[in-house]
Fold Cytokinin riboside 5'-monophosphate phosphoribohydrolase.
Amino acid sequence: MGNPEAQGPPEEQRLGPVVRRRDQITPGTTDQRLLDTEGDAEWVHTDPWRVMRIQSEFVEGFGALAELPSAISVFGSARTLPGSAEYEAGVRLGKALVDAGFAVITGGGPGAMEAANRGAREAKGISVGLGIELPFEQGLNPHVDIGVNFRYFFVRKTMFVKYAQGFVVLPGGLGTLDELFEALTLVQTRKVTRFPIVLFGTAYWGGLVDWLRDTVVAQGKASQKDLMLFHVTDEVEEAVALVTKEVGR
């Protein structure tokens, strides 16, 4: 048998922190590919390039919201109709949060989000909208004073949590449920310092609360104390009092 050491090291290419060997070696250098003006533009759709886009979204979000005062994130359906009882409750909630000294953060869309932003603006407070790129483009509602549009849901969710001292959740659909359970999970697992989560509308949220208690907790998939991670109310004043109390205001 031959001596393996006599065969020399494997053919190797170092590209920054990446090592490529044998048939995984790519032609040329990183600088050469960067400065080459020829070729297709498929590289802008690669995962490494997406990382740069994701990073830029974090930078833009942090930069826009870094000086935001104490704020509450308000979630709710984009399908809530103007003039409905739910919409008017959202307007009152936005105003009451501003009166309590909070900025109001929403997803920036229509419906319940627009209602909370409208209430905040009419109360002369800070009205923030964190939009998301969707196939059915909605755009930021006209009551947003500081708006940031995101490509990626997970970046947007980080902004909701990082710059809010609590959540108030109006009746909503799958997106609202996603945001609600994201918040509950972060608090339950202590990934964030505990902050208040208030569900607004006992008739709407009652079935979900019953299912959590009678099925999820009853079958041991969650503990009884997890039901204490949130409050349910029908009163704007109580919702604001709950978030104010828990954040020590």
Remarks:
- The first helix runs from residue 30 to 35.
- The domain at 56-247 is CATH 3.40.50.450 (Rossmann fold).
- The chain is about 40% helix and 15% strand.
- The chain has a mean pLDDT of 88.
